[in-house]
Amino acid sequence: MDGVGPNPLAVRTENVCRHFQMGDALVRAVDGISIDIRAGEFVALLGPSGSGKSSLLNLVAGLDRPTSGAVIVQGNNLATLSREKLAKYRLHTVGMVFQSFNLIPSMTLLENVELPMRFAEVDRRERGALARQSLERVGLSGRLAHRPMELSGGEQQRASLARALINRPKLLLADEPTGNLDSRTGTEIMELIRSFNQSLGMTVLMVTHELALAEKHAGRMVHLADGRLVDDIRNDDVPNVSSVPASEQGGTQ
Amino acid sequence: MKSYDVIDLAVRNLRESVFRNSLTTIGISVGVASLVAMLSLGIGLQQLASRRLQKSGLFDTVVATSRRDFRNFREQRDEGPPPAESPALDEPARQKIERLPGVVEAYPDIRFVTELRFGDKPHLTMVAGVPFSAKNNNDAFDGMQGSFFSSDAVPEVILQKSFAEELLGKTPKLGADNTNIAELAKPLLGKELMMRYAERIAPPSSTGPGDGAAYSVVSRQQALKIVGVTDLDPDSMRGTARARVFLPLKLAQDLHVMQSDLRDTSPSSAPTYTSLSVRVGNPNQVPVVEDAIKKMGFSAFSIVDATRSMRQFFAVLDVFLGIFGSLALAVASIGIVNTLVMAILERRREIGIMKALGASDADVRGLFFAEAGAMGLVGGAVGVALGWTIGRLINLGTNIYLERQHFPPAQIWSVPLWLVLSAITFSIVVSLLSGLYPAARAARLDPVQALRYE
After folding, report:
1. CA dihedral defined by B45, B47, B53, B57, rounded to 10 degrees?
2. The dihedral of CA A21, B365, A105, B335: what is its sign?
3. Of A64, A92, A115, the CB nearest to B448
4. Bridge partner residues of B103 (DSSP)
5. In 3D, which of A118, A191, A128, A180 has the Cα closest to residue A151?
6. Calpha distance A227→A56 (Å, rounded)
7. Across the interface, do A115 and B2 touch by the CB < 8 Å criterion?
8. Number of independent structural domains in chain A
9. Is residue A244 part of a domain?
10. What dihedral do alpha carbons B214, B219, B223, B229 form, nearest 10°?
11. What's the CA gap between B30 and B7, in Å, rounded?
12. Substitution target from B21, B357, B360, B452 for chain A, most A beta carbons within 10 A
């Protein structure tokens, strides 16, 4: 398989399937995908609508369980984890960014970014400072008390990134993060994600249907169609992050 | 999630849909208010009834009589020494009874029929001695005109309404009596009444045994000042032997009136009593005191079982009032379920986001539970205040009615602290139970489905 670097394994899927029963028809959203992602890789999942990109991402995110096969992250098969352990996995190992930002509208940016820390039971006094730092890092230090509706799409996505990174996850999962943004703002967000991938050595798995964006930022492009892996290309234009300490990545080997 | 964060987020969520949540909370308040109002009236009526009955002397009093007194034939079957060998009911015995644990006081029962002159006219009636303590524990003296005796042995007298009417030459009406007691008392208070009676004097030589039966009788008279007229009958539990004129007990004792019964049949010269009224601090102690008196060799009786059946009646009444009060709370609890289920639908996406960010099932469940509990707490507190007000208004209305009917005011409503605390606790518990299903439903929500929800 292409794109395998020297770093430990971050994610491995073994013949993973996710089938849905829709009336009489069986929809094979993910149909036997096996893929290894090394720590520090920036992988773009590409494919037309209905190709199973988001379904695969949800399986890796621990939001959904496979019908068969295994999704192994940090040595744990997510398919066999209890609901409680899966929630802990989402809390500490994964950071998620969505196409529609998914900020909670009734909360300010600061409160939105603080929210995962509440679930992680981070001390109340530390939370404010950490959330502020995280928002500063994405250039939103002047917008702490604003509510999501008062911000542009790009700002909202940046806040969403700040929230995704607040619990220092090993894995950043992005589902069409630029889908609702104009191309200039989209590029800004992609550069931000790329910078986190580079500076923090964070593994990135991003769903997108914009090939140009993927070619520009992702080190590896995995193409899906009808729930199957059709292509897995190493993008030599983008250097892969190397020498990420295994302790930071929590790899499986 | 830490409990502080659960509460903080729950309060924030409640504030977001303030109108709908307020309506639900008002629903709970009305439920709690009806429960509190019903029970406060039940408790108030119970307290009123037990206060009245306690002051009647029926339930906290043991009547002790000497077994030698052959009139007490109903006691003859009792165990104990035969009447002839039983001790005399004299002053040392009275003091000994008064020292029994739980006994507040033991006083002799003094009553005699005598002639009272008001102006020139003689009136024959039953006169009774009243202990000075009756000032505070016999509610017949609560709403009377004039005042209670100024001290324990003063030549003062309190009249029962019917006797006052007789003195003024009015015929007591049968049935509903609307005579204004204040008007009745006005011409009588401060006036003098002359009591003519027969004093019993023991001859100076009667020191040896067997001489007690010898005594002489001297005709005397005593001027008495009318200080009070009472509407209710302080002696109502005495049946046919009811007195209509009341003297301070000490004065009545000092007069040594020759009583019509067979008092002083003792072989010794010391005076003995026909019967003693033994007042007990707590009605629950009545059986113990009764037994102790019987062990001393006297006859004793009380009507303690009646309080038990009264308490049983009020317990049943409270249960019924509580059930009716709870019905409104049951309806309110359906409101909580509805509000929270609506909140799940409305916040479906938010729940999905929280789960994607790492919230556990327990976090989501706790959040909905806390919201239900908070509505229960606020609803309970507001409901108690509302119920308190309703109870107060009913009490006020009843007293206005009673006043118009020339009855003394009564407290028919009571909200003790335990009722406040248990109503709020009950409200929270009912709200939490109502939150069980919505909270479980929210916790089991599939995050992928929830995130897709627009």
Report:
1. -170
2. positive
3. A64
4. B280
5. A180
6. 9
7. no
8. 1
9. no
10. 70
11. 24
12. B357
In chain B, which residues have their Cβ closer than 8 Å to the Cβ of A58?
A: 448
Which residues from chain B sit within 8 angstroms of residue A99, using beta carbons?
A: none
B331 pLDDT above the threshold of 90? no
Please name the member of B5, B356, B359 whose beta carbon is closest to the beta carbon of A96: B356
B358/A91 touch (CB, cutoff 8 Å), yes or no = yes
Whole-model pTM: value is 0.68
Q: How far is CA B4 from CA A122, A124, B154, B218, B436, in A?
A: 12, 9, 70, 88, 20
Rg over CA atoms, chain A: 18
- Assigned domain for A131 exists: yes
CA distance linking residue A199 with residue A186, whole number of Å: 20
| DSSP states of A136-167 | HHTT-GGGTT--GGGS-HHHHHHHHHHHHHTT
Q: Kind and range of the H or E element at B418?
A: helix B417-443
Tell me how close the Cα of B43 comes to any Cα of chain A, in angstroms: 47
DSSP B222-241: EEEEEEEEESS-TTGGGGGG
pLDDT of residue B152: 82
Spatial distance between the Cα atoms of A40 and A239, rounded to a whole number of angstroms: 11
Which of the residue ranges A115-124, B250-259, B377-386 would you say has the lowest mean pLDDT?
B250-259
From B451's Cα to the closest Cα of chain A, the distance in A is 8
The residue segments making up the domain with residue A25 are: 9-239
Chain A residues in contact with B5 by the CB 8 A cut-off are 118, 121
Identify the H or E element spanning A34: strand A25-38
Position with higher pLDDT, A249 vs A182: A182
Interface predicted TM-score of the whole assembly (ipTM), two decimals: 0.90
Residue of A nearest to B359 (CA): A119
State the average pLDDT over residues B380-389: 93
A227 domain residue, yes or no: yes
- A54 found inside a domain: yes
**Pairing between β-strand B145-146 and β-strand B216-230 as defined by DSSP bridges:** antiparallel
**CATH, residue A48:** 3.40.50.300
**What is the C-alpha separation between A22 and A25, in angstroms, rounded?**
5
Residue B315 reports pLDDT greater than 80: yes
Q: Would you tell me how many other CB atoms lie within 10 Å of the CB of residue A212? A: 10
pLDDT surpasses 60 at B146: yes
Interval A84-88 mean pLDDT: 94
Which of A104, A114, A117 is most worth mutating to test chain B (most B CB atoms within 10 A of its CB)?
A104
Q: C-alpha distances in angstroms, A122 versus A128, A134, A145?
A: 10, 15, 21
Look at residue A250 and tell me whether its pLDDT is greater than 50: no
| HEC secondary structure over B146-197 | ECCCCCCCCCEEEEEHHHHHHHCCCCCCCCCCCCCHHHHHCCCCCCEEEEEE
Residue A2 scores a pLDDT above 80: no
Sign of CA dihedral A19, A21, A22, A26: positive
Long-range contacts of A134-142 (CB under 8 A, 24+ apart): A134/A162, A134/A163, A134/A165, A134/A166, A135/A109, A135/A110, A135/A159, A135/A162, A137/A162, A137/A165, A138/A162, A138/A192, A140/A109
Compare A33 and B412 and report the one with higher pLDDT: A33
Tell me: the pLDDT tens digits for A175-209? 999 998 898 899 999 999 999 898 888 999 999 98
Q: By the 8 A CB rule, do A223 and A243 touch?
A: no
Please tell me the distance from the alpha carbon of residue B356 to that of residue B350, in angstroms, as a whole number.
Answer: 10
Give residue-wise pLDDT tens across range B208-234: 444 455 667 788 888 899 998 887 666
